[in-house]
Design brief:
about 55% helix, elongated
Length: about 110
């Protein structure tokens, strides 16, 4: 904390320590994991949107290809409710025949 006149200034880390818990605590670890998962889901959703738009498809048209409503495609594109099975259906419907998961030193795993 830093004092500036009558105001107390806190760093982001100090606020997170106070509100969520210090680094290494179960609460903080859970929060950091949830943030990382949300960011990854966002990037997957952005990739879905980009691939759909590159093919000049509407959300409704992509939904028809995989058997879901337009609203579900919207959720996927916003990074919500994405499962490995739904990703496989979407990307296959978009003509992306293969995908792999890079596990670093453990190698790569084919997802579909």
């Amino acid at each position: 904390m830093e004092q500036l006149g009558n105001m107390k200034l806190y760093t982001l880390e100090e606020v997170k320590d106070e509100l969520i818990g210090k680094v290494g605590t179960p609460e903080r670890d859970k929060h950091e994991m949830e943030v990382a998962e949300a960011i990854n889901a966002y990037f997957i959703g952005a990739a879905i949107r980009k691939a759909r738009k590159a093919q000049n498809l509407t959300q409704e048209q992509l939904g028809e290809r995989i058997g879901v409503q337009k609203s579900q495609i919207s959720k996927f594109e916003r990074g919500k409710s994405i499962t490995l099975a739904s990703m496989a259906r979407i990307f296959k419907a978009l003509g992306i025949a293969t995908a792999s998961l890079d596990l670093g030193s453990f190698g790569k795993v084919a997802l579909w």
